[in-house]
């Protein structure tokens, strides 16, 4: 597949066929993704391939409270857990999460409720002894650390596309990363970065909704003129 085409059309996939994904495929995805860019080439990623059903269910149970809080914030018109936000409004919204959870429990459930059933579940960890983070000592929110892990996650998703597989990067369990670390015996030198769910897609999302370049790129200054197509 053409690289540009792949970059423009690889969307999040949360519905998978029952077909199992063989171990060889999972190995190949990681074998390709390991060439991802990362700070200082320290390759601080670690991956736990979760096969044990009890551990999968426990991860689903860790995922769900955050998911209902996410839905509650979306319903209130908020960007969930935005770094800069109105915390009072956020707290009010999150207060509705239990009602959303109750309503969900009465239904068939979606991706979140069936999170434990995904064909492949990869927990991504960051090794803090190897994560090169130039903004580590900043007195504001830090950005750089994740940039050594998430390109690796994206490379797994692109490699999956090349194999006829698909999936989604999820971070909801990071809301309770202590519980995940305990569950997976992660030492405190490592942080949980997310969970990748992969499988054979029921359908591949290809029509992605994104804002145009003119809305996010400017020339010379933050408030400079929009970068226009030549
Ligand atoms: C850092 C990050 C965290 C995400 N966390 C979750 C998550 O916890 N659960 C989930 O279902 N999707 C999650 N996603 C997937 C996004 O919802 C998805 O990429 C976005 O909605 C765009 O979807 P599209 O490419 O299909 O248009 C995450 C994606 C990223 C990059």
Features:
230 residues; alpha+beta; NADH Oxidase; four-stranded antiparallel β-sheet; 7 helices; 34% helix; 12% strand; globular; binds flavin mononucleotide
Task: Write up what this structure looks like.
This protein is an alpha+beta fold. It has a domain at 3-60 and 121-215: NADH Oxidase (3-Layer(aba) Sandwich). The chain is 34% helix and 12% strand. The chain is built from 7 helices and 4 strands. The chain has helices at residues 3-9, 23-33, 53-75, 87-94, 97-105, 150-162, 177-184, and strands spanning 45-49, 120-127, 166-170, 190-199. Strands 1-2-4-3 form a 4-stranded antiparallel beta sheet. Helix 2 packs across helix 6 and helix 3 packs antiparallel against helix 7. The longest helix has 23 residues, at 53-75. The radius of gyration is 19 Å and the shape is globular. 27% of the residues are buried. Bound molecules: flavin mononucleotide. Flavin mononucleotide binds at residues 11-12, 14, 111, 168-172, 205, 208.
Characterize the overall form.
Answer: globular
Sketch the topology as an H/E string, one letter per element: HHEHHHEHEHE
Helix content class: 25-40%
Output the CATH class name of one domain.
Alpha Beta
Chain-averaged pLDDT = 97
Question: How large is the count of helical segments?
Answer: 7
| Biggest beta-sheet profile | 4 strands, antiparallel
Structural class: alpha+beta
N-C termini distance: 27 Å
Strand order of the largest sheet: 1-2-4-3
Question: Which fold does the CATH topology of one domain refer to?
Answer: NADH Oxidase
Q: CATH architecture of one domain, please?
A: 3-Layer(aba) Sandwich
Beta-strand content estimate: 5-15%
């Amino acid at each position: 597949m053409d690289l540009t085409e792949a970059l423009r059309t690889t969307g999040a996939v949360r519905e998978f066929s029952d077909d199992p994904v063989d171990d060889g495929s999972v190995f190949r995805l990681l074998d390709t993704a390991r060439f991802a860019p990362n700070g200082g080439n320290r390759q601080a990623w670690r991956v736990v391939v979760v096969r044990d059903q009890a551990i999968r269910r426990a991860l689903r149970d860790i995922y769900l409270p955050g998911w209902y809080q996410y839905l509650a914030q979306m319903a209130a018109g908020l960007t969930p857990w935005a770094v800069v936000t109105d915390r009072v409004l956020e707290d009010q919204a999150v207060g509705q999460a239990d009602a959303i959870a109750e309503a969900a429990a009465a239904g068939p459930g979606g991706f979140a409720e069936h999170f434990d059933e995904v064909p492949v579940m990869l927990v991504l960890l960051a090794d803090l002894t190897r994560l090169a983070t130039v903004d580590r000592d900043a007195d504001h929110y830090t950005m750089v650390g994740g940039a050594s892990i998430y390109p690796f996650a994206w490379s797994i998703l692109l490699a999956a596309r090349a194999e006829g597989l698909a999936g989604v990067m999820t971070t909801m369990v990071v809301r309770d990363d202590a519980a995940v670390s305990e569950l997976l015996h992660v030492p405190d030198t490592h942080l949980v970065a997310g969970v990748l769910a992969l499988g054979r897609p029921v359908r591949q999302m290809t029509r992605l909704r994104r804002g145009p370049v003119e809305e996010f790129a400017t020339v010379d200054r933050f408030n400079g003129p929009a970068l226009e197509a030549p």
